[in-house]
């Protein structure tokens, strides 16, 4: 699934001028070469939405050139986006070659895997899409740890393709069901009849599917309107190290991981003491944070983006209630009980 791109403006407002927005982002990338990768990827997405696919390819080529505007943080992602774009306007052979290269490189970021798998799926290469999703899941997921948020599209995409192929549920499909928080179960959402009906020429089938989608959208809006926790953002140690290494200005917000954990606990206790209810913790990942920054047209190095990111994760149902219940493990990921970790006397200092 491609990174978030700016959606059309709110209902009753003028639609986005994708060409103008792409050109604005290109100019901004020229002024801030250190952010060129995120800005030009977003610009290319606008060009694709406008149907200017050759111009989008030119931006991907610029990023992948021997001397790009700045060193790439995620070249596999750029290659995957380029392949998906090329295939959409008839360059199938080149797209397939790039997809083979992305899969052979085995990136540790889920996004390139999802993009190339969905490109294959979109062109009815369901077996190849299934193989790609499965290879990604095998590489990125372990039985010992809960799947990071950024890997959820791998499991959801694999579930969808397996439903299209008529495969029986396996362990990863069950895990995808558990992770899915929408009001419509994945089995129904990925029902092949529903997926195929979206491309049907039969007006009755299309109208029936539109009615179902409207009902689901109403349920989704109702879920979003419910109060969600006042959430504090938590970065696991490895994610925080990657974050401050990629965006040094954020090091001022996070002097050390230990201090970060202590600050979370202290902040939540202070909020609880002031009478604030429904408190929670959301766990961030660098890929999802970068995607959020791109959707907000804001550099990830901007500290003001952090609370917005936390609020968005909470609104999507990603918050874990605080404090943990009696006998539960600590929220910090240490594996120890909360009372013997941040919930103990030392955690109160």
Brief overview, please?
This protein is mainly α. The N terminus is likely disordered. It contains 16 helices and three strands.
Shape designation: globular
- Mean residue pLDDT: 85
Measure the end-to-end span. 43 Å
SS elements, strand count: 3
Structural class: mainly alpha
Spatial strand arrangement across the major sheet = 1-2-3
What is the helix content? 55-70%
> What percent strand?
under 5%
Q: State the order of secondary-structure elements, H for helix, E for strand.
A: HHHHHHHHHHHHEHHEHHE
Which stretches are low in confidence, meaning pLDDT under 50 for 5 or more residues running? 1-14
Major beta-sheet overview? 3 strands, mixed
* Gyration radius from CA atoms, angstroms: 22 Å
Number of helices: 16
What would you note in describing this structure?
With 349 residues, the chain is mainly α. It has a domain at 230-348. 57% of the residues lie in helices and 3% in strands. The protein has 16 helices and 3 strands. A 3-stranded mixed beta sheet has the order 1-2-3, sandwiched between helices. Helix 7 packs antiparallel against helix 8.
How are the elements arranged and paired?
Blueprint: H1 18-31, H2 36-49, H3 53-64, H4 75-88, H5 92-105, H6 110-122, H7 126-140, H8 152-165, H9 171-179, H10 186-189, H11 192-197, H12 203-225, E1 230-234, H13 237-246, H14 257-273, E2 279-283, H15 286-295, H16 305-315, E3 320-321
Parallel strand pairs: 1-2
Antiparallel strand pairs: 2-3
Helix pairs in contact: 1-2, 2-3, 3-4, 4-5, 4-6, 6-7, 6-8, 7-8, 8-9
């Amino acid at each position: 699934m491609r990174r978030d791109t700016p959606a059309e403006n709110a209902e009753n407002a003028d639609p986005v001028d994708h060409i103008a927005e792409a050109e604005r982002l290109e100019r901004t990338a020229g002024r801030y070469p250190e952010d060129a990768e995120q800005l030009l990827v977003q610009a290319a997405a606008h060009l694709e939405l406008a149907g200017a696919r050759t111009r989008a390819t030119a931006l991907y080529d610029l990023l992948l050139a021997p001397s790009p505007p700045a060193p790439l943080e995620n070249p596999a992602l750029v290659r995957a986006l380029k392949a998906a774009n090329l295939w959409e306007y008839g360059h199938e052979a080149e797209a397939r070659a790039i997809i083979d290269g992305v899969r052979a490189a085995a990136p540790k970021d889920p996004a390139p895997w999802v993009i190339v798998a969905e490109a294959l799926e979109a062109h009815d290469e369901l077996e190849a899409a299934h193989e790609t999703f499965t290879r990604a899941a095998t590489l990125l997921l372990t039985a010992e740890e809960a799947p990071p948020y950024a890997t959820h599209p791998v499991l959801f995409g694999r579930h969808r393709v397996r439903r299209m192929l008529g495969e029986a549920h396996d362990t990863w499909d069950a895990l995808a069901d558990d992770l899915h928080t929408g009001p419509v179960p994945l089995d129904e959402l990925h029902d092949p009849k529903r997926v195929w009906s979206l491309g049907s020429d039969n007006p009755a089938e299309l109208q029936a599917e539109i009615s179902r989608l409207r009902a689901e959208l109403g349920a989704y809006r109702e879920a979003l309107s419910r109060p969600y926790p006042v959430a504090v953002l938590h970065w696991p140690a490895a994610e925080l190290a990657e974050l401050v290494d990629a965006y040094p200005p954020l090091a001022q917000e996070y002097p050390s991981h230990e201090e970060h954990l202590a600050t979370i606990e202290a902040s939540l206790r202070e909020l609880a003491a002031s009478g604030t209810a429904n408190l929670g913790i959301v766990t961030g990942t660098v890929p999802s944070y970068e995607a959020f920054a791109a959707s907000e047209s804001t550099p990830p190095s901007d500290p003001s983006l952090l609370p917005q990111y936390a609020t968005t994760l909470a609104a999507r149902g990603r918050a874990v209630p605080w404090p943990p219940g009696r006998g539960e493990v600590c929220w910090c990921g240490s594996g120890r009980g909360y009372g013997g970790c941040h919930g103990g006397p030392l955690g109160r200092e």
